[in-house]
Amino acid sequence: PNTPGKFIVWFRNETTLLVLWQPPYPAGIYTHYKVSIEPPDALESVLYVEKEGEPPGPAQAAFKGLVPGRAYNISVQTMSEDEISLPTTAQYRTVPLRPMNVSFDWNSITSNSFKVQWEAPKGNSEFDKYQVSLATSRRQQFVPRTSDSVAWLEFRENLEPGKTYQVVVKTVSGKVTSWPATGDVTLKPLPVLGLRSFTNEQTGLVTITWDPDPASTQDEYKISYHEVETFNGDASTMNTDRTTYPLETLLPGRNYSLTVQAISAKVESNESTIIVVTRPSSPIIEDLKSIREGLNISWKSDVNSRQENMRLYPNSPRNMTIEKVTSNSVLVRWMPPIQSEFSEYSIRYRTESERQWIRLPSVKSTEADVTDMTPGEKYTIQVNTVSYGVESPNPQHVNQTVRPNPVSNIIPLVDSTNITLEWPRPEGRVETYFVHWWPVANPDQVHTKNVSEVYVTPMSWVGGDHADGKLGVDDTPTVHVLIGDLMPGVQYKFRIHTISYGLTSDITQLTTRTKPLIQSEVFVVNNLQERDMVTLSYTPTPQMSSKFDLYRFSLGDPDIPDKEKLANDTDRKVTFTDQDNTSIIIATSVSLCLLILILVAVFFIRKRRNGPRKATKEPRSSDNMSLPDSVIETSRPIEIKNFAEHYRRMAADSDFRFSEEFEELKHVGRDQPCTFADLPCNRPKNRFTNILPYDHSRFKLQPVDDEEGSDYINANYVPGHNSPREFIVTQGPLHSTRDDFWRMCWESNSRAIVMLTRCFEKGREKCDRYWPNDTVPVYYGDIRIQMLNVSNYPDWVITEFMMSRGDQQRCIRHFHFTTWPDFGVPNLPQTLARFVRAFRDRVGPDQKPIVVHCSAGVGRSGTFIALDRILQQIVVADYVDIFGIVWQMRKERVWMVQTEQQYICIHQCLKAVLEGKENVMSPPREMHDNQGYEDTPQPPPPPIDLAEGCKVMDDGGSIEGTCNGMNGIYAEEMTKSSQIVVEIESTAYVDANPTEKRQSRASIKFIPADVAIENGFHDIYNGNGIAANDDDDDDEEEDRPPQTKPGGYKIIMKNDHECTLLVNGDGEIHENRHQWLRREWRR
């Protein structure tokens, strides 16, 4: 019986796995399923589930009594009597047990850090590590499992003072996490600011007020006071949620120390303290007697009041100055106050960005050193006089900015036209890096670049890798500055300095040279009479494009010495000789494939020997050279007002310039890796073996447990007009990948799908019908799809679906273009333009990403995206860049806009829009449509006997033949890596006029079929030398009778051993194969 379909875990906990699977497709005949689990820990490790329903629906089975956190291999097989199918297998894990007793080290809690600890799970459970996170943050940290029963982690980054955090701790087994264990911790709030007191002049009531720190969270405030210098004096404590509080219970004539603390969830901040003196009560007059020449008054004090001798505020210090400035310290000096008593001086300082003062030890002298200052920071330094704890109300202060540190340890990464400078980020504050450079030979050509944004890559570690077990960050971040538009081979001088608060650091200098650029061609001068030498000629590299001193020539044999020529040598030849003939014969027998031309700049070599360099080697294709994007032309903007003339010029001579321009796009992006697509577990998910997504831009699904390849789908992000990731371009879903397709739509939060193919074309499946037929909901994996409504138009269909996953629902639109013909492009390019307009009328620029697919997901999809970008671009710009748009798309996904006809169609659509013919329904020029299926029957041509029309002669290296008026010479090299060159003369009609004929001669190059299939080519050419693969991207692996014009021919490379010539006598296509001339030549 057939193998069951894909299955998933529908429910799991610590000891149970409930699996759900799809029936086989096609279902076939079977009676029940056998479901097994390894290791056999379950109460029943082999289950038999009967088939239910016809056709059968999904089935399920539950394994109980499993070990928490353990990985289990589950297999499902169909059974029909004694026969059993191949298994569908997957690995799933049970949920591990949760940690226990999450607690906190209260001594470690500060305003910006805390330490959390927990215990390992109780009982038998398998897990690898702990996952620790804050409930308010998505950032997760991992702590390896150790033999200790207690684990811990310290949080020190991005925490808010006074805020309550919930710490979530889970165990992790593979990629399965346990239920969480949680604990709440509140950080210390910051102290209050600006604590001060006011005394009512009439009543003597003392009122205090303060400001909460805006960077802190607090619920209330705690106010405490007590008498100073008195044992068991008056004291009290109260709480309030206000920032002003009248102290009505203070006793008169007392000296109080008063503190205020911010409180958040019963966690108190550090104290803020002031001294408050209450006004003494008036004395009570006991007796008033008249005496001679006056009055005799006696009084007594209020028992609640106290009178003391109090010191006044001291005067402030004078003439505060800064002396002896170093890179991280200053010496502060001042003069003592005039006519004032004092006991000492207090010194505080803080940076401009901080509000908290740093207090230094008090001094009695008139100077103090302020040390450990950060380079580049601006400081305010304050000095005040103190008289027995009472400070002057007017402290003296001065501002001082510490000079920023210079850069050091610069490493230049050198290329031909740019240099990247790297250096460790200097310690301290830096606002801007200034880089000045000029050619050493022309010091007046000074260029400047300032960089205020740096790129830092911290290295993090957790737990066991360090003795303290704390989460940390590497202290050596790096600054990168790219200097471009440099002349190859030129020596440049660089000067770099930093700036902070207007102060400039010391200048660091560097001299280095760009690499010279090669623009020469090398030719072998053949001399068959000389067996012990080979002569090379070369074209010079223009001195205006690169500076250099020598040419160096090397052969692949290291025993043959290199040759050097001066740059200005007019003799453009060099000769290699070998006395025993051996090396030269070997070198020339492989067609000098290892010949290397090197431009050598002598000073550049010496510089590299004296200084460190970093370099990386990139793999290079054996049949072409990959140039950097700065060398290759990647953009060709055309002004909109000149587009009609541009199109006329490109379309002249049978679209000759279109062919040339499209040929330049052939290798764009092809050197990029597709590693994940070629993994064995992912190969069956690709519709075509040669259409694979690039690694750097592929869409990644959320992994499913430990299932290898579960994050893979054949899809890439492709840039649009509104965003660099506006589109997700994918292949037409296979039956086995449609669940992944809907998962991609859900996980990307896409709200629109564009489909540009029919499910079946030319009798072949191009795309699975991955959506429901009616309004009955259908499950694709765990995603429920229900059709809401359908709108039918002449050339497209718009359907709205409701996607549901769990309790979440989303609406998504499906735009299906239904009239793309089997061959070529839409007959009326305006139809495609109208479809793009209809799509954009319903999908706004902020609704992204948009999923686009045809069958292979390259040709039609690229045409649609290019046209969408262009129609938006012409609204906001006065130019259009079709070449550049296609170039960009091909860097993200292979073969975007696959055929020349599609490339021309984009231009035709834009031309129709600019001419106001978007809604005109007139037929366009001939698009090489399939004429073999017209309504008017045509008499079939008489069969042509190949034996009569072809004379075949094999002379050991070539085959020559004449076939019914068509002369062909087939010359082939007898190596697998060779090309077959075909030259054919034929008679063809001009402009479909049978009275006017012309002779055409075409030269066609074929690569071997194994290389062709690997690279996505099926080289089919018509009689006038124009590529006849006018189908879209969906037929890379299809074998069909090719399409011809009158007098045409087709030559198809079948594999690496044979080539087939197909000729049609009257230019029409018929299904009867005997009407095609067919002959195979074998090597």
From TrEMBL:
Location within or outside the cell: Membrane
Statement: the UniProt record of this protein carries the keyword Cytoplasm: no
Entry GO CC: membrane
Topology of this chain in the membrane: Single-pass type I membrane protein
InterPro entries: FN3_dom, FN3_sf, Ig-like_fold, Prot-tyrosine_phosphatase-like, PTP_cat, RTP_Phos/Ushers, Tyr_Pase_AS, Tyr_Pase_cat
The EC number(s) this enzyme carries: 3.1.3.48
Signal peptide (UniProt feature, chain positions): none
Key words, A-Z: Glycoprotein, Hydrolase, Membrane, Protein phosphatase, Signal, Transmembrane, Transmembrane helix
Catalytic activity, as annotated: O-phospho-L-tyrosyl-[protein] + H2O = L-tyrosyl-[protein] + phosphate
Tyrosine specific protein phosphatases domain residues: 830-904
Domain Fibronectin type-III, first and last residues per copy: 3-98, 100-190, 191-282, 316-405, 406-518
GO biological process: anatomical structure morphogenesis; neuron development
PROSITE patterns: FN3 (PS50853), TYR_PHOSPHATASE_1 (PS00383), TYR_PHOSPHATASE_2 (PS50056), TYR_PHOSPHATASE_PTP (PS50055)
Keyword Disulfide bond: no
Transmembrane segments: 584-605
Family annotation (CDD domains): FN3, R3-PTPc
Matching Pfam families: fn3, Y_phosphatase
Alphabetized GO MF terms: protein tyrosine phosphatase activity
Biased composition (Acidic residues): 1029-1039
Domain Tyrosine-protein phosphatase: 658-913
Region feature Disordered, mapped onto this chain: 1023-1050
Protein name: protein-tyrosine-phosphatase
Organism of origin: Lutzomyia longipalpis (Sand fly)
Taxonomic placement: Eukaryota, Metazoa, Ecdysozoa, Arthropoda, Hexapoda
